[in-house]
Amino acid sequence: HVKERGRSDFRFYQRQMNIGLLSRMKLDHAMRQALEKNLFRMHYQPQFDLHTGKIFGVEALIRWNDKDLGEVSPVQFIPIAEESGVIVQIGHWVMQTAIRQAALWNQQGHTLKMGFNVSGLQFQQSNFVELVAAELEANNLSPDCIDLELTESVLIKDIDENLKKLNALAKLGVKLSIDDFGTGYSSLSYLKRFPIHKLKIDRSFVEDLPEDESNAAIVTAIIHLAHALKLQVIAEGVETEQQRSFLSALKCDELQGYLFAPAMSVEEFERHFLQDAHNLACHLRVSS
Ligand code: C2E
Ligand code: MG
Ligand code: MG
Ligand code: MG
Hints:
It contains 13 helices and 9 strands. The protein is an alpha/beta fold. Helix 1 (2-36) packs across helix 2 and helix 5 runs parallel beside helix 7.
């Protein structure tokens, strides 16, 4: 009996694994198709400066609506793209699209910073810095208009190699942020070694502010740490007025979240935020 059950368990396990494998392969294929046919889209989520109350930039977030799979969240497909390696091509598309859009907006007189996410494999390319520099030059965009969002886990993987790249990027004038700060390997020593400009407090710590005492303590500590190190700090996932006022009282520099706006298409973003200069400020009350 035991033997039989063991065998059927094994078969069951194997079938599950095949399904997992199949859908990964399918997804990988679908992603390559989407790249080839230019089916990925980019949405842009506004970011606000708490000192001026104005929008200062956006974060570019990839979107994918597949004809068979429907809307697939980047939370689902980015990790699979990272495993298969196709993230390198996707990441290149992201960088090109974000830089081109930033150049366009800036040419139209809208001074906006463009933040975009860079994943590990993409950053590990030996010519990554050159790729960024080439794209900026091709679009005649000032390097300080872009903000590369990297996670802690990416940065600490090969510290010496990464340090060279980060220094080269910083020398170029590109801004560097640590995304999802606090969720990775929290060795604080690299904060002083890396030429980064901003910490992005992860949404999981912003949730339940100010009621959750641990989150309140963590967020307070991160903001103080950032300022003590002369870094900017932004909170992501701000959804409520209570969160906004808590973060504002702590002198968090910047905010991003559904309280202000979700990520939206170029058309929506332009309609809501660029058509009338007044709109830039009116979405965020300047706090005292
Ligand atoms: P992330 O870089 O930390 O991006 C923030 C995520 O939080 C976005 O989800 C954004 O839509 C969402 N968000 C923003 N404000 C709020 C809020 O107030 N409440 C809640 N609940 N969520 C909020 P999204 O677009 O689904 O992206 C998820 C993750 O996928 C990103 O996390 C990033 O790690 C990855 N990702 C997205 N686009 C790209 C990309 O172009 N390249 C790479 N490498 N990764 C990407
Ligand atoms: Mg990000
Ligand atoms: Mg983040
Ligand atoms: Mg996050």
